[in-house]
Amino acid sequence: MQILKDEVKNSIRQAALAEFKKHGYLKASIRQIADAAGITPGNIYRYFKSKDDLFDELTQPIQEQLAEVLRVCKQEVDNTRCTALSDHLLILRRIDASLMLLFKESSTELTILLNLSEGSRFASVKQDLITLVHQIISEVFTAELAPSGMLSQKDQLSARMIATTMIESICLILRDNEDGDTIKMLVDDLLYLYCTGISEKIKIAQA
Fold first, then answer.
1. How far apart are alpha carbons 129 and 108 in whole angstroms?
2. Quick one: angle between helices 125-145 and 85-105, nearest 10?
3. Helix (H, G, I), strand (E, B) or coil at 173
4. Is 133 in contact with 163 (CB distance < 8 Å)?
């Protein structure tokens, strides 16, 4: 029986990362991965059971780290430890910092996970992030703009729009940039603009 070699497996992993980043999970080709790794397609299956198995090995570690970040942040919101606008904005900044740390450690994997995982079992990761940010912003608006505890339809739609565009913008930055320092600068600027806009919206409504 042929001994599985670490260098061959690493070649497959690197080729797969490039293929998934270029084409996404759905359109990625085992044949293209094999060609890039310098082996036959059949030989890939000596190391990985399927494209799913290969994709999971590459992205699951970063998915688990991101899931833990979301769990902790959601728990803070659910436990109402946040009592002021600054508390909620602090959580948004913590999510930002966590994304930047994950990007620093695994930039390609995070980009694939958030932008190119459609069709895989991790396809909902970006939506989970949007849902958490939406919850945070909705609670900010409710506390600051709705003494009755009921947001107007306009503010509900606004909270959803802000959450969706914020996360989509971060994903766009990750997709279109390679340099970590540039990405951190752009995401920090983005979050500053959103947080400033949220604060200004509340000030105007309360004036």
1. 18
2. 160
3. helix
4. yes
* pLDDT score for 81: 56
What is the residue whose two structure tokens read 């890039």?
Answer: 36
Q: Please tell me the distance from the alpha carbon of residue 164 to that of residue 144, in angstroms, as a whole number.
A: 21
Name, in order, each residue with C-beta under 8 angstroms of 24's C-beta and a sequence gap of 6 or more. Answer: 112, 115, 116, 117, 118, 119
What's the alpha-carbon Rg for the chain, to the nearest Å?
20
Q: Which of 124, 192, 191, 130 has its CA nearest to residue 161?
A: 130
- What are the tokens at 94? 């913590």
Spatial separation of the C-alpha atoms in residues 186 and 105, rounded to whole Å = 18
pLDDT tens digit sequence for 48-98: 999 999 999 999 999 999 888 888 878 877 776 556 667 777 777 888 788
What is residue 62's predicted lDDT score, i.e. its pLDDT?
92
Instruction: Give yes or no for a contact between 11 and 38, defined as CB atoms under 8 angstroms apart.
Output: yes
Q: Which segments of the chain have a pLDDT < 70? A: 1-4, 80-85
Q: Which two tokens stand for residue 116?
A: 């190119």
Residue 82 confidence (pLDDT): 55
Cα 164 to Cα 1, 41, 158: the distances in Å are 52, 39, 10
CA separation for the pair 65, 201 (Å, rounded): 33
